[in-house]
Amino acid sequence: MVKPNSVVRFAPSSTGLLHVGNVRAALFNWLFAKRHGGTFILRFDDTDRQRSRPEYEAAIERDLAWLGLDWARKERQADRLQHYDAARDRLIATGRLYPCYETPEELEFKRKRLLSQGRPPVYDRTALKLGDADRARLEGEGRRPHWRFKLATEEVRWDDLVRGPQHIDEASQSDPVLVRADASYLYSFTSVVDDIAFGITHVIRGEDHVTNSAAQIQIFRALEAEVPAFAHLPLLVNAQGGGLSKRTGSLSIADLRARDIEALAICALLARLGTADPVEPVTSLDALAATVDFSRVGRAAARFSEDELAHLNARTIHALPYAAVRERLPATIGEQLWLAVRGNLTTLADALAWAEVVDGSLVPVLEDPIFLEEAAARLPSEPWGETTWKEWTAAVSAATQRKGRALFHPLRLALTARETGPEMAKLLPLIGRAKAAARLSGMRA
Predict the structure, then answer these.
(1) pLDDT tops 60 at residue 1
(2) What pLDDT sits at residue 47?
(3) What is the third-level CATH fold of 361-440?
(4) pLDDT, tens digit, 9 for 90 and up, residues 291-350
(5) Mean pLDDT of 127-138
(6) 296 contact partners, CB below 8 Å, separation of at least 6
(7) 253-322 and 361-440: same fold?
(8) Which residues does 85 contact at the CB level (< 8 Å), separation at least 6?
């Protein structure tokens, strides 16, 4: 269900570079907000004090801006600690958050013992049996508590926008830790507090958070807040079926940008992978937003293929009007040259090579000098247009009796020094008569 004035958020941790997997969640949030006239919030989940870095935060903002995913509001969890403190105290007062004193080693021992007995490693709530004297004694020994949320032993249900009806029996789950022993907060808690504060209506994220959702729904209710709708997207894997990691730079947006991949190609591929819709190039994010539909997203993990991205990148460039690329091209590449060569490009940078063919100096490849001399003698007078190539080659063919490859290939080699390329009917007028005559005669021009 789409609620009026929908509010969504993308909540990356500033602990590494964005890769295509987590950008997919950002993209679906942005497209959803765009389609429904909602608000897209960028929120940095930066409560991990040891691994969060300002340079990663800056890189995430840079990547999102390059992709065209602008935000209406930016927040940092590190600036909101007092709000988490207040929510923590509220849960403690209502008996839903309780202190635990086990060390990591003790918890690991309990976990292994339960597994060896063939039982699920669910926390046994020993801490609830402690009295004031027990807690005082443990704290006197130097122990500091971590705090667990007391789950209601019920089956939590929700209708996921991607996965359909979901249910998790919380009696089979451990009470989640919300506050560490050093008093820092975990994601499951701070995320809920912020979603309440910012009025988030739809939580759109990866399916690795499905199990978290049941506990978070209980936290929403414990804080007497409305539960948002959930949409859990299937995870992306690489071409080999492996996972993606932002900490290793695996398929990072920064790397793809450095390789001259188009932002629109990345977005178009991520929006369509794993859906019932074909992967097609688009000319704007608005075009993607108009078709975003969670009911068309499949359940299976989708493979991200760099070969498929490269192919889509080329198709995207082939459809781009000059106005969309003008500011990214050198002044030597005007609209006529762009329209002539774009159909042969795989990246935007490839256009520079064709600008050199037209305006630069190259060493022609002379496959048949005698034939080329005859062809040069029949070059028509300027002005030239897109009919010049046809008229000229017809005259050369009549004089030499050459046709097909024997006619066209030597001319292309001499004029461009390349075996293949854009239509010569479009290139020849841009090369001009003087350069064409010089190249046909073997001169560098």
Answers:
(1) no
(2) 82
(3) Arc Repressor Mutant, subunit A (1.10.10)
(4) 999 999 999 988 899 999 999 999 999 999 999 999 999 998 999 999 999 999 999 999
(5) 95
(6) 275, 276, 277
(7) no
(8) none
Dihedral over Cα of 423, 429, 434, 435: its sign: negative
In the DSSP assignment, the letter for residue 75 is E
Chain segment 48-57, per-residue pLDDT in tens? 777 889 999 9
Residue appearing with tokens 């459809």: 319
The pTM (predicted TM-score) of the whole model is 0.90
DSSP H helical ranges for 36-130: 54-67, 81-93, 104-116
Q: 283, 219, 271, 216: which is closest to 91 by C-alpha?
A: 219
CATH H-level superfamily of 253-322: Glutamyl-trna Synthetase; Domain 2 (1.10.1160.10)
- How buried is 95 (Cβ within 10 angstroms: 0-12 exposed, 13-18 middle, 19+ buried)? exposed
- Give tens-digit pLDDT for 170-194: 989 999 999 999 999 999 999 999 9
Hey, which residues does 159 pair with through a beta bridge? 165
Q: Encoding tokens for residue 123?
A: 């926390």
* Residue 7 contacts residue 37 (beta carbons within 8 Å): no
Which two three-digit tokens encode residue 348?
Answer: 């935007």
Within 8 A by CB and 6+ apart from 253, the residues are 17, 18, 19, 20, 23, 63, 66, 67, 266
Domain borders along the chain are 253-322, 323-358, 361-440
Q: At what angle do helices 424-431 and 404-416 cross, to 10 degrees?
A: 40
